[in-house]
Amino acid sequence: MFENLDVFRTAMTMARHAGLQQAYSAQNMANADTPGYRAREMPAFRLAGDTLDTAQKATRAGHLHGTTRTIFEARDRDTPADPNGNTVSLEQEMLAAVGAKRQHDRALAIYRSNLTILRTSLGRS
């Protein structure tokens, strides 16, 4: 029932996005000394309707004229490389991890707030 409500779906998607960003930050920190390692990051969280991209989208690889991009595609971070080819900056990773935690907390607050509204409307507290 709750997964059909857009606000709950949005909160769940936001929390999932934050979790992936946290995982990429942890992976980047673990490889901070690995020669040639390219730091990965998630693009900023956006809802499906927030984009100006009007290209056709495919939901399966067999669809014609569409791309199967998702909002959860990671990309290489554009930062200068060290002499060993590594692009991880521990300062940036710590900031990204804090940003992911804030985003996850925001998603949980949205979920809790709307759950409270839904319970109140049903007469439960």
Please, could you describe this protein's structure?
By secondary structure, the chain is mainly alpha-helical. The protein has one domain (2-121). The chain is 46% helix and 3% strand. The protein has helices spanning 6-30, 90-121; strands spanning 40-41, 75-76. Helix 1 runs antiparallel to helix 2. The longest helix has 32 residues, at 90-121. This is Flagellar biosynthesis protein FlgB.
Labels describing this entry:
125 residues, mainly alpha, two-stranded antiparallel sheet, 3% strand
Helices and strands in order:
Elements: H1 6-30, E1 40-41, E2 75-76, H2 90-121
Antiparallel strand pairs: 1-2
Keywords: Cell projection, Cilium, Flagellum
Organism: Pseudoponticoccus marisrubri
Region (Disordered): 61-86
- The computed structural class is mainly alpha
Computed over alpha carbons, the radius of gyration is 18 Å
Helix content: 40-55%
**Strand order in the largest sheet:** 1-2
Keywords: Cell projection, Cilium, Flagellum
Protein name: Flagellar biosynthesis protein FlgB
Organism: Pseudoponticoccus marisrubri
Region (Disordered): 61-86
What's this, in brief?
Keywords: Cell projection, Cilium, Flagellum. It is built from two helices and two strands.
